[in-house]
Specification:
The complex is a heterodimer. By secondary structure, chain A is mostly helical. Chain A has 13 helices and no strands. By secondary structure, chain B is an alpha+beta fold. Chain B has helices at 47-57, 59-81, 118-126, 169-181, 205-217, 274-282, 299-335, 337-352, 355-370, 372-399, 403-410, 415-451, 465-473, 481-507, and strands spanning 5-10, 16-21, 111-117, 130-141, 146-156, 162-168, 189-190, 254-258, 264-273. In chain B, the strands form three sheets. In chain B, strands 6, 7, 8 and 9 form a four-stranded antiparallel sheet that branches. The longest helix of chain B has 37 residues, at 299-335. Chain B is elongated. Chain B starts with a strand and ends in a 10-residue tail after the last helix. The chains are: A mainly alpha, B alpha+beta. Chains A and B meet through helix 1, helix 5, helix 6, helix 11 and helix 12 of A and helix 8, helix 9, helix 12 and helix 14 of B.
Chain lengths: 318, 517
């Protein structure tokens, strides 16, 4: 087991390195003129030129990558050039993360139980009208692009009925109740997708388990339907569901591009879009690495968690 | 005997000897006997036919397929037959409500319910935009400390009234000649106005100049208004016109500009009734079937162009991905071993790059060189084939060791023949059906990226639904019509593609036969 984990982590690091290198080279191939006006760099053009020189601005790309790697290893991801000029990328990122985490955390706190409950409910009522209604709703929510329900929620909840403020509150403390209330429309938009995905998935898993032979045995030996469902079916169905939830929990760092952009949440997703639009390649590179890392780590944890949650699955067994 | 067949037989002792079998000793033993087996009463059903039958039993999928067909026809036909091109817009008929035909009344007649303050009510009424006054309501405004009366009106959004225009002498003559031939309600030129009354108002100088410049921007104010733009009324309660009149009381229909020296030039300012001018220019009154957006584009036409782009991109990307995926997956799966290991590592690494990263990088690199649409296509293809490749690889692993492949190989079939004639047809079912589901995901990514302005697909020749949405987003609380139709179109498209694709997948999966009933 330990050997397998180490192998996977090693493989992950190699992949991460290669993909990062690819991104770095592709970004460095783009023209990146040093834009420095007295206002843009806080009046400190010399410092920006010095920084560019230190990063090997006119050197070969591979040499620049080596310098970049050295900086990364001590936690220095560069500075903003076009947005947040002369400010540390890592620092800005740490300011942006709380908003994203807050929105995603609430999404998960609301979405996961609701998704599981709805999925279980419709699995138990399989092929009855309740199941059909839930299935159709789930299909609608999954198919309809998220910006469409952003529009709907914004229009009705914020504008027509005035339930929530149209813009989110100013401030940097994203965990106060007022702040969460003002972020509620965004949370609702994101929670719909989470609920729908989880409902569909858990319904599929649970219906499969509920028709297994051992469920019949459990009923035959005298368990009530509720007991059999909770003790036998639910636990077995959780084997594939739990890793999926785990993956989503890691994904909560990455945020949603659309929702953050739409509701003006100052989070990671909004930062990424701005970095593309203003062509700030330090932020762009860092955020690319960030997304790649999240994808890799969540993939790894999902795979490993199968082994931990279900002793029948042996990891890396030949 | 000459017709005896020589058969070589290898016996247990590995020694060969010739066996002579005379032809006339062979006889049919069953030729004239009656066979008592019963013929099949049922009709033969092929794989495709069976899939079709089971697909048509799935009512939801059939409905989705029909709606999908309508949407596809709409986006293919409308750009060809529409009165508007994708870049045609009218700068005055903006944010109009849907109007199905020139003389529509009742449903979708270009009217909109509105609740406006009194000055806007008189403003709209001044050029006949108010179709119906439903009533008034009064509330107390905390900001101004006064009661505010709101007029609930039904407003014709295709009435924009008078606009100032700067033209040459021949245009003025042309329009004046036209005005003589039509009755009053269709006359284009309106009397010119002057704002000298403002000087006699009892307000400060700054407010006077603000009011003056405000009125000079809008040709629909032909009556005296106060600083809040409310009409000033005479003793009878009528508005007081501010037309320019000469000494004999004749109205003036143009003013002539002067140049720097004060000499008269060939440039005239006129106040034209744009609604009538539109009829004069186009021969019919304006109408946009689904309304117009905030620039004045026809939504019905633009939507079709956007849908066409989305569908085209979806279909092209899906087919390229399938072809690439099949070739890649077939090579991986068929040869296995080291080839498989290396190729699998490559696709593993590629699949780790988030698609948003790929798209932005491709866009930054290629958009200026080959255009935004091809660069987006490359980006979607760059990592899109991986899913198909792994499906094909799995199928190849399943089939390549089966006996019929061994038989074909024994008979001397080459690798290429084995791959494309013997294994691929078995593997192609799930690939093709999954490709139908690839189309909506491409459409979604495309619209999302253009909505987020990461890519800009809008140009003189085309537009995209995402662009329409991001353009309409700024004013969507006041003009929800601008984003309603793009949202509706893309939602319908996605829902139908998903339902249709799932139905197709189930229909082409023979193992599900009989499980639906």
């Amino acid at each position: 087991m330990a050997k397998y984990i180490f192998k996977r982590i090693g493989l992950m690091l190699v992949t991460f390195f290669i993909v990062t290198l690819m991104c770095f080279v592709l970004i460095k191939l783009l023209p990146d003129p040093i834009v420095c006006t007295p206002t843009s760099a806080g009046g400190n053009c010399d410092a920006m030129y010095a920084w560019y020189n230190a990063m090997g601005y006119n050197k070969p790309i591979m040499e620049q990558f080596w310098i970049y790697l050295q900086h990364i290893c001590v936690g220095d991801f560069g500075i903003g050039t076009k947005m947040y000029p002369m400010q540390s990328v890592g620092e800005i990122m740490s300011q942006k993360l709380p908003a994203t985490i807050s929105v995603n955390l609430w999404t998960m706190i609301i979405g996961i139980p609701l998704g599981l409950i709805l999925g279980t409910f419709s699995a138990l009522k399989k092929n009855k009208w309740e199941d059909s209604v839930i299935s159709v709703l789930v299909m609608l929510v999954i198919s309809v692009p998220s910006y469409v329900y952003c529009f709907i929620i914004m229009y009705f909840f914020c504008f027509k009925w005035n339930w929530f403020p149209i813009t989110i509150n100013n401030g940097t403390n994203f965990f106060t109740p007022q702040m969460v209330a003002s972020m509620m429309p965004a949370i609702i938009c994101m929670v719909l997708g989470t609920i729908a995905g989880l409902t569909r998935y858990s319904r599929a898993e649970l219906t499969e388990v509920l028709t297994s032979e051992y469920m019949l045995l459990a009923r035959a030996k005298g368990l009530t339907r509720a007991q059999a469902t909770v003790r036998h079916a639910f636990r077995n169905a959780m084997v594939p569901i739990f890793p999926m939830i785990l993956g989503e929990i890691i994904g909560l760092l990455s945020g949603s591009l659309i929702v953050e952009n739409f509701f003006g949440i100052p989070g990671v997703g909004a930062l990424y879009i701005t970095s593309i639009n203003v062509k700030d390649y330090n932020f762009f590179m860092f955020l690319n690495m960030f997304y790649i890392a999240i994808g890799l780590v969540s993939g790894l944890i999902i795979d490993l968690s199968y082994g931990f949650i279900d002793p029948r699955i042996r990891m890396g067994a030949k | 005997m000459s017709d005896n067949k020589k058969v070589s037989v290898v016996n247990n002792n590995d020694s060969q000897f010739d066996l002579k079998l005379p032809q006339d000793e062979f006889a049919f033993i069953q030729k004239d006997e009656k066979i008592y087996d019963q013929k099949f009463q049922t009709k033969k059903i092929g794989f495709l036919q069976d899939a079709l039958i089971r697909f048509s039993k799935n009512r939801g999928s059939v409905i989705a397929a029909v709606i999908l067909l309508i949407l596809i026809l709409y986006s293919l036909i409308v750009p060809a037959v529409s009165r508007f091109g994708v870049g045609d817009y009218d700068q005055y008929y903006t944010n109009c409500a849907p109007k199905v035909s020139e003389n529509a009344s009742g449903f979708w007649d270009g009217t909109k319910s509105d609740s406006v303050k009194s000055e806007m009510y008189y403003y709209y009424n001044g050029f006949g935009a108010v179709k119906e006054l439903k009533g008034t309501s009064t509330y107390y405004s905390e900001d101004t400390g006064r009661d505010v009366t709101m007029y609930n009106i039904v407003r014709d959004t295709y009435k924009v009234g008078f606009k100032f225009d700067t033209v040459k002498k021949d245009v003025v003559d042309e329009l004046m000649a036209y005005d003589k031939t039509v009755d009053d309600s269709l006359k284009i030129l309106g009397p010119m106005v002057e704002y000298s009354y403002i000087d006699s108002l009892t307000i400060d100088v700054f407010s006077k100049s603000t009011l003056k410049s405000f009125l000079a921007r809008d040709a629909n104010y032909y009556y005296q208004v106060d600083r809040y733009h409310n009409p000033i009324k005479d003793l009878q309660g009528n508005t007081i016109p501010i037309y320019i009149t000469d000494d004999e009381g004749n109205l003036s229909y143009y003013t002539q500009f002067t140049d720097a020296e004060g000499a008269l030039t060939n440039t005239y300012q006129i106040r034209l009734n744009y609604d009538n001018y539109y009829v004069y220019k186009n021969g019919h009154r304006p109408y946009n079937i689904l309304g117009s957006d905030s620039t004045g584009y026809d939504i019905f036409t633009r939507l079709a162009y956007g849908g066409r782009l989305s569908l085209l991109l979806g279909v092209v990307v899906a087919s390229i991905n399938i072809i690439l995926g099949i070739i890649y997956g077939a090579i991986e799966g068929y040869y296995g071993g080291a080839t498989d290991l290396i190729m699998e590592r490559i696709s593993d690494i590629l699949s780790c790059v988030p698609s948003i990263v790929v798209v932005s990088l491709f866009n930054l690199h290629l958009a200026t060189k080959v255009g935004p649409v091809p660069s987006l296509l490359f980006a979607f293809v760059a990592t899109g084939w991986i899913g198909t490749a792994s499906t094909v690889r799995m199928q190849f692993y399943r089939y390549k060791n089966q006996e019929y492949i061994l038989a074909a190989r024994t008979l001397g079939a080459k690798d290429r023949r084995l791959i494309f004639h013997h294994i691929l047809p078995n593997a192609i079912g799930p690939v093709v059906t999954s490709s139908v589901l690839m189309i909506p995901s491409v459409i979604f990514s495309e619209s999302m990226l253009s909505y987020l302005n990461i890519i800009n697909l809008s140009s003189r020749d085309t537009t995209s639904i995402g662009t329409m949405l991001s353009e309409g987003q700024a004013t969507f609380t006041t003009y929800p019509n601008n984003i309603l139709w793009p949202c509706l179109f893309i939602s319908l498209l996605m829902i139908c593609f998903n339902v249709f694709g799932n139905g197709l997948r189930d229909a082409f999966n023979p193992s599900l036969r009989g499980s639906e009933e």
